[in-house]
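Quick start: what a row looks like.
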Amino acid sequence: MTNVDFRNALGRLGLSQSALARVMRQLGDPRGQMTLLRSISNWCRGETAVPGEMWVVIRLLELTPSYLSVEAS
């Protein structure tokens, strides 16, 4: 999948880059907010490939939107 696919997936989920970083932190990602934002930004711009693990996370969020409720907390 491409960076455009990744950006489109974020749009379908209604997530900004910073919102995705918050969701990831709230679900247990140990990296700092700025580190996550830098990675997500690089993926969106196509500067680095979106890792396979992130595609799994995106797919799980699409299949289980209740996980997105942590973003609101």
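That is the whole record. The chain is about 70% helix and 0% strand. The longest helix spans residues 33-45.
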